[in-house]
Amino acid sequence: MLNLRRLDLNLLVTLDVLLAEHNVTRAAQRLNLSQPSVSVHLARLRDIFGDPLLLPGPRGMKPTARGEQLREPLRLALDALGQAVAPASAFDPASATNTWRVAATDYGESTIVLPALASLRQQAPGTRLAVLELAPDRITRQAEQGEIDLAFHTSAGAPPGLRRRTLFAERYVLAGRVDHPRLQRKPTLRQFCTLEHVLVSNNGGGFYGVTDEALAQAGLTRRVALSVPHFLFMIAALAATDLVAMVPERLVCGNRALKTVAPPIEVPGYEMAMLWHERAHRDPAHQWLRAHIQNAVAPVR
């Protein structure tokens, strides 16, 4: 079996040209090498393959049977290698057929994916988009293995080792149904604590969150009457009951079924980031997708 470690790519390029030209002088001219250098290459190739490869003839050199066998697969292999190392071509969204996979919570779907969707379909109609449920402990592995192209996560909780770009800063507002009798004006802190709240718990069934941490620092507590796993269900519950919630502003901006007011206590917000692996960082299609999403996520007015 041929030992590939003995092969030099330059030797294979020389062999490809020799098999095309059947002449050492013309091959040297095409390769921009001296004739003796091409002859040295041929001698090394003959030693490696254990075959003369090309023999002198009346009209130049004639390939041996082994040389003829090598001609087509060698040409195909060199063409494929040339394509592999060629500079990446520009990405044309209008003709693209990419399938992109992004990981997001229902919050990320509503505030990031949805705003980008209409223009994505318009500019890249041949592409497909799969939205996967965000699993924070699997983001890095999924990105490394190419299972996802992007993930949308809070900057503070994002796993290390991934590229990131901050998309926007989020803040909390107090929300309830549009005709909620106790939200027609900003409640006092005491009134706020007596309201019945709904909370989104990512760890499943929790009744304590960032608002409770802020209240605890002031020596106060509130009543959390409902714990749910998803923001979209929380919004539906707010519209249908007298429950209130501390809600990310982008999630309820423009929702006519809800009334929002500034909370009477300061609760730290967060930044949302777009995450991706180094393997995709310089890919033109991936660069276009990242820029498209960032441009589509407009500031809340």
Question: How would you sum up this structure, described in words?
Answer:
The strands form four sheets. A five-stranded mixed beta sheet has the order 4-3-5-12-6, covered by helices on one side. Strands 10-7-11 form a three-stranded antiparallel beta sheet. It has a two-stranded antiparallel ribbon with strand order 1-2. The chain has helices spanning 9-21, 24-31, 35-49, 65-85, 106-123, 139-144, 189-194, 210-217, 231-240, 249-252, 284-296; strands at 54-57, 60-63, 99-104, 128-133, 150-154, 163-170, 172-177, 196-200, 223-228, 245-248, 258-261, 270-276. With 301 residues, it is an alpha/beta fold. It folds into three domains: 4-85, Orthogonal Bundle (Arc Repressor Mutant, subunit A); 96-170 and 271-296, Periplasmic binding protein-like II (D-Maltodextrin-Binding Protein, domain 2, 3-Layer(aba) Sandwich); 172-268, Periplasmic binding protein-like II (D-Maltodextrin-Binding Protein, domain 2, 3-Layer(aba) Sandwich).
